[in-house]
Write a structure and sequence with these properties.
71% helix; 8 helices
Length: 262
């Protein structure tokens, strides 16, 4: 039976597909770490209280990248170059979503609107990350190799999502509600397109490595297209709503080191 658990188990059991999966994940997390680190350094003077939280966000993303690389090392594997069409964070940037790297590379303070764009972009992408990690947590929390990593990363992603909700609500109360909703909608619609394209590309590469029959590849592609149709119709709304999180000040403390994972 084709299920999320059986599909991921198949990827996990094969060295080549596991190598690609971890390399893609590590690359995306490391890029997110760099972006948050730069944003933390460029937060405008009037919003400096946000800088430590943004830095904590970046430290968590860097940690996740190291964890995925550690999983490769445990199997005696080296990272592989990430195919362009599977690079989720890069493709989002190419769509004009979030803050461009050339902007972050300049030593010029961000504007208040830049910070709102960053938080809105993060709220959308962290929704995806949180959902993906909860799916892995559901099926692999007790796995001898992946279990501890999945638990740690899932907890962090939930914290990141809570932080985005809380900070965006603070900006909304300060009179930026319309801007926030506009940016959230733009980000959400772009994200679901990119996620569809990346999912199709990843499944294509995995299918080649695992020698999937055409029928299996077609079923998986159809499922990805069906999910996109649902998200385009109504599913995107879950990415633009804002609620006060149960966990307050989720990024107010120190990052949990990956030594807890090792």
């Amino acid at each position: 039976m084709l299920s999320a658990k059986s599909l991921f188990q198949e990827i996990l059991d094969d060295d080549a597909s596991f190598r690609l999966f971890c390399s893609i994940a590590a690359g995306g997390e490391s890029q997110g770490g760099w972006e948050n680190g730069r944003i933390s350094a460029l937060v405008p003077a009037g919003l400096r209280e946000l800088a430590p939280k943004v830095a904590r966000h970046g430290a968590d993303e860097d940690k996740h990248g190291r964890i995925f690389n550690a999983l490769l090392k445990q199997r005696g594997l080296e990272p592989v170059a990430v195919p362009y069409e599977t690079d989720y964070t890069l493709l989002l940037e190419r769509q004009g979503i979030g803050l461009a790297h050339d902007r972050l590379s300049r030593e010029e303070p961000l504007t208040e609107r830049d910070v709102i764009v960053y938080l809105a972009h993060s709220r959308v992408t962290e929704q995806r990350a949180s959902e993906q990690m909860r799916l892995l947590l559901k099926h692999f929390a007790g796995h001898p190799t992946l279990g501890r990593a999945v638990k740690m990363i899932s907890r962090d992603e939930d914290n990141h999502l809570a932080y985005c909700h809380e900070e965006l609500l603070r900006f909304a109360r300060a009179g930026h509600g319309r801007t926030i909703q506009s940016v959230l909608r733009e980000c959400a619609h772009a994200e679901i397109r990119v996620y569809r394209d990346v999912s199709l590309a990843v499944m294509s590469h995995m299918g080649h490595l695992l020698r999937w029959p055409r029928a299996k590849a077609a079923v998986l592609a159809a499922g990805i297209h069906a999910m996109y149709a649902y998200e385009r119709l109504v599913g995107w709304r879950r990415m633009v709503s804002l609620e006060q999180p149960t966990l307050r000040d989720a990024l107010g403390g120190q990052a949990v080191p990956e030594s807890e994972f090792a």
